[in-house]
Amino acid sequence: MKRKLRKAPELKSEDKVALFWAKHNSTDFVNWSDAKKGLFPNLRPSTRPIPLRLPVSTIDRVKVIAHKKDVPYQSLVKLYIAEGIEREITSHSGRR
């Protein structure tokens, strides 16, 4: 026999939604066996500004490369950081 699901209330603020779900089990409201994986192709990861001191010569070199690639230099710096992290993770995978 299929269990009857409850209807979740429509709440006006994120705080009230968070409080509601902290006190309730979602299985009373959702049949998770019917769930499908969601795709969010346009979702950007959260970002946080950080102070980062780099030598002026390094910034100038990155700006030249970014100009040649026709991309913002800060985006190129983020890409270089992400690639460096990925390379570090890959080179240490399997090592303990």
Structure overview:
By secondary structure, this protein is mostly helical. The chain has a domain at about 55-95. It contains 3 helices and no strands. The protein has helices spanning about 15-25, 55-70, 75-90. The radius of gyration is 23 Å and the shape is elongated. The chain starts with 13 loop residues before the first helix and ends with a helix. The mean pLDDT is about 90.
On the 0 to 100 scale, the average pLDDT is 91
Number of DSSP helices? 3
Gross geometry:
elongated
Structural class: mainly alpha
Features:
single chain, 96 residues, mainly alpha, 3 helices, 46% helix, 0% strand
SSE diagram, text form:
Blueprint: H1 14-23, H2 56-69, H3 73-92
Write a compact overview of the structure shown:
By secondary structure, the chain is an all-alpha fold.
